[in-house]
Design brief:
The protein is an all-beta fold. It is about 0% helix and about 55% strand.
C-alpha cells in the first residue's frame, strides 16, 4: 500500500521591465507552476456518470442524492490519492508612468490559463 504524500510543486517566474517612449515603463511577467506531487480525492461510493453535456463543454454529469450511491447506507466514502498531473500558467502585462508626486497612469492585463 502506498503512503499519501503532501503536495509540492515547481515554479518558474520570469519578469522584465523596459523603458518605453514618453517615460512609460512596460512590464511583463510570467509564472509557470508544475505539479510534482499533489492530492486529489474521489468519492468511492459514487456510481458512474449518467450522461454528458452537449456542445463545447462535454463534461460528464452524475445523478444526485442517494440514487447516485453504490451503498445507500454510506453517505461519503472519500478516497485520497496522489497525482503528478497538472500545471498553471499566468502571464501578465503592465504599463505605467510616474512623476515625482504621483502615478500618472497604471494599466495592465492578466490572464490565467
Amino acid at each position: 500500500m502506498k503512503t499519501l504524500s503532501f503536495h509540492n510543486y515547481s515554479d518558474l517566474i520570469f519578469a522584465a521591465d523596459h523603458q518605453l517612449m514618453y517615460n512609460v515603463v512596460g512590464s511583463i511577467e510570467g509564472i509557470f507552476n508544475k505539479t510534482i506531487n499533489n492530492i486529489y480525492y474521489i468519492d468511492a461510493n459514487q456510481k458512474g456518470p449518467v450522461g454528458s453535456y452537449a456542445g463545447a463543454d462535454a463534461r460528464q454529469f452524475y445523478s444526485g442524492g442517494s440514487a447516485n450511491r453504490i451503498n445507500t447506507t454510506v453517505t461519503d466514502a472519500i478516497l485520497l490519492k496522489n497525482t503528478d498531473q497538472g500545471y498553471s500558467l499566468s502571464p501578465s502585462h503592465q504599463n505605467w508612468k510616474d512623476n515625482l508626486k504621483m502615478t500618472l497612469f497604471n494599466d495592465g492585463i492578466q490572464f490565467f490559463l
